[in-house]
Amino acid sequence: MLTGWRLYLSKCFIIPHRYIVAIMGFLAILNAYTMRTTLSIAITEMVIPRNSTSSGDHGCQVEGDSEGDGPIIKNPEDLYDWDETTQGLILSSFYWGYVITHMPGGILAEKFGGKYSLGIGILSTAVFTLITPAVTRLVDGDWRWLCALRVCVGLGEGTTFPAINALLAKWVPLSERSRLGSLTFAGSLLGTVLGTSLSGILIKETQDWASVFYFFGGFGVVWFVIWTLMCYSDPESHPFISDKEKKFPSQRTSECFERKQSDTLEGDLDIGPALGVNRRTNWTRLGILRYGYRFTQIHEGHTQI
């Protein structure tokens, strides 16, 4: 039974707390994807631009330095001589760390709670994103240091999806899991759209590629503070939700499990094709996201090969 300040706080929330967890999970994934995409856009303005005109494969003359179509970054100290191989290593280094922490992230979420696994993962990603401009300038564009930073960003972000799944399993009953799960995981799509579009706007308006790292990294820190104060790993450990809401997920889950237990085998047999489609979709989307902007600039002759 809630009393005192816990009772007062519980009345301040007009929606069930499982929806708050789902919304915060949505914002976590959205922020993770914006921080993932920042470098894909920023790197197009971090490399030394080509100063001469060039012709494409089909003989079309492309003006690289025409008026209004030149580089946004004017300070030569913020431009680095990275060839295409180096840029490819920098862009791919995120995934070197990202693949490592998926399984440990799930284990940690089960053992210590999704709140801490997700929160610390997003916070570390935000911190490494925030210090990226300072470190890059401090080492005078040494790409090896930038690769190391991106590996650390990937290590932090790799815990996101395992922790989200652990949280949804604790908070959301089976009858609502598809709906709230769709809401939460939609953050990846919106984060990709916002990350790419806002990064271009920020760089253009500030004429500084570092602005995207400060903006999205700062948003990650703000998210972490709100997450720490409002969300918990499971209903039982939450200090200011009602007893009814604490029992709701487990009651509904047991009811749905009894109804759907006979369909479990059939559902398991049909999951293979869905996983295959999902993998191909992710492969294509991430490939375009990671290297599409570099290809466009090379084709138009705005960057160095």
UniProtKB/TrEMBL annotation:
One of its GO terms (molecular function) is transmembrane transporter activity. Residues 17-305 form the Major facilitator superfamily (MFS) profile domain. The keyword Cell inner membrane does not apply. It is a multi-pass membrane protein. Pfam families: MFS_1. The keyword Translocase does not apply. GO terms for biological process: monoatomic anion transport. Keywords: Membrane, Transmembrane, Transmembrane helix. The chain crosses the membrane at residues 12-33, 89-109, 116-136, 148-168, 180-203, 209-232. InterPro entries: MFS, MFS_dom, MFS_Na/Anion_cotransporter, MFS_trans_sf. Its main location: membrane. One of its GO terms (cellular component) is membrane. Gene3D superfamilies: MFS general substrate transporter like domains. SUPFAM superfamilies: MFS general substrate transporter. It is found in: Membrane. It comes from the Eukaryota. This is Major facilitator superfamily (MFS) profile domain-containing protein. It comes from Photinus pyralis.
